Every structure is written in C-alpha cells, then in structure tokens.
Amino acid sequence: MAPANPYSKYIKQYQTNNIATATPEKLMILLFDGAIQFLLKAKNAIAENNYKERSENIDGARKIIRELMRTIDLENGNDVSKLLFRLYNRMAMNLIKANVTKNADKIDEVIEDLTNIRWGFQKAIDIQSGVTTVEEVMKEQMAEEASANPALQNTQIEKQEDAE
Questions:
Q1: Confidence at residue 152, expressed as pLDDT on a 0 to 100 scale
Q2: Residue 34 burial (10 A CB sphere; 0-12, 13-18, 19+)
Q3: What distance in Å separates the CA atoms of residue 31 and residue 8, rounded to the nearest whole number?
Q4: Residue 6 in 3-state DSSP?
Q5: How far apart (Å, rounded) are the C-alpha atoms in residues 74 and 77?
Q6: Of the residues 12, 76, 88, 111, which has the fewest C-beta atoms closer than 10 A?
Q7: In sequence order, which residues have a C-beta less than 8 Å from that of residue 68 and are 6 or more positions away?
Q8: pLDDT per residue over 76-132, tens digit each?
C-alpha cells in the first residue's frame, strides 16, 4: 500500500475552497473537468479489466452529465437548449452502453463531446468577461479546423483572397 500523501488534507481543503468560492460559470467548467477525469479513469479501468473501478467512474461521469441536464431550462430555453439536452442525454446513454459492453470507444465519444462543449462554455465566459472577442474565437476555431483538415486550408485561403 502506498504511503498517504502528507499534503492530501491541504489539497482537499484547496479543492473545497475552490468550489465554494467559484462563480456559476466556473462551476460549469469544473463539472466538465470532473466528468472528463472520471471517464479517463474509466478507460484505464477497462484496459486493466477493473470492473468495479470502471463502473464507479462511468457512474460518476453519468451523474455529472445528469446534473448538467438539470441546469437546462427547457421551458424558457430555445432550440439550442433542447439540442444540448438531447446531446447530454445521448452521452448518458452512451455511458450506460460503454459500461455494459466495456467499450472504450463509446467513452472516447463522450470525452470528445464534453471537451467540445467545455471549450464552447469557456469561450463564452471569456467573451462575456472581455478576455476575447467573438471574432477572435471564430478565427481560432477556423485555424483549428484547418490544421485538422488540410483540405480546409485551401478553401480558407481562397476565401481570404476573395475578401481582399
């Protein structure tokens, strides 16, 4: 058995204070981070055939996703709210399937979805707080997509040349 971390009580206190003093926006980011961490642990547990660890971590992520679903105001929301709710629901269902079938690919899908939504929330927070602008975020997203898909680079270069 590994020796106890002498700083664990301080780490726990820091985490508690971080959550207690967080803004609602920061809490959303922390929820995404927590779900992603659970899923990374679940993937490791699948690789190690640790069924208990896999199940506990998938369940932890699923509970966070259900909590995210509860934050959506479907009655007063728009189509985006409904789409986001359906996406969260699909993620929760994929986690149930991943747990039953021990399928790490389903977990990867959910991690990708959570990462993308987290990115969007973080950018919205940054825009709201004046850290960045919508235009800068759009340029960043276009550059990211172009680097992931070389065919897009030529299209974007052509659009820039046409604009000039």
A1: 61
A2: middle
A3: 21
A4: coil
A5: 5
A6: 76
A7: 28, 31, 32, 35, 88
A8: 888 999 999 999 999 999 999 999 999 999 999 999 999 999 999 999 999 999 999
